[in-house]
Design brief:
About 40% of the residues lie in helices and about 20% in strands. It is built from 11 helices and 13 strands.
Length: about 300
Amino acid sequence: YVSLGIISLYFLPLVKTLGFFSKMFLNLYTLFAKIDLKIITGSPSILFYLLFYFAYFLFVYLKEINYEKLATKVLLTLPLLIVVSSLPIHNLYEQAIYFINVGQGDAILIKNYEYHILIDTGGNLYFDMAEEVLIPFFKKKKILKLDYLITTHNDFDHNGAAPSLLENFSVKSYLTKKEDFPLEIKQLTLENLNIINYDNDNDNSLVLYFKLMKKEWLLMGDASKVVEEDILNNFPLLNCNYLKIGHHGSNTSTSENFLKSLTPQEAIISCGLNNSYNHPHPDVINLLNKYDITIRRTDLEGTICYSSLTF
């Protein structure tokens, strides 16, 4: 009798081979497990609905007139439309800036096919602003990650949702300091014009200036009239097309001299409907009307969007 030990010697090369393949498949499994294959479908566009119903009614019509083969081909396009609409194709050509409606607070999204930047997050004491508002908004816009999260200062209505957003969404970089600017991202340069350090936290807000879609934008954070005057002294040639009004339209911000110097065409006010601070202040509204500046308000309009195509 040949012992089992001797017989096993003949299978030793096979065992080594099986071990090699087992290790290889384990490594492949580990690799694919790390790959995020999820697709955020977002909301189908109006164009998708038009094409979908056109294809559907065309299918019904062709069936009625006995064009069976052609009707079948039309029917096969419907799943294709669904698949195509689920892909973030529009992100390849759209650039936009959104003033997201977060109630009494600020949250501004800059996006194009190369980057996504969120400036401030808003915040709410009664619900998670990131989970309930921001992340659903990103998913609707088919945004998978933020390249930069920037908070202008430490007020809760500007950075309150930042911890939850950092925990529950993909964010590559988080910036909070004046020293982080200017920030160059592809063709976009964000400059902080508030270069003086103040004792007041609102006055230490980042004040961000940039050019986007061939327009000049200025985001004032919660900076007061004192900061506005210092900015005019430091940047006497400053102009902008779009001005995000400081401190949600409070009368502590937006001086007449500031508006006369900047000559904006539109002013955006981010504030909550019927908020307890009575923002925006009537004096600010009257001043904007005096200089024929178009007023956009998140409390009245909801999220405000400016967009264009890049091709």
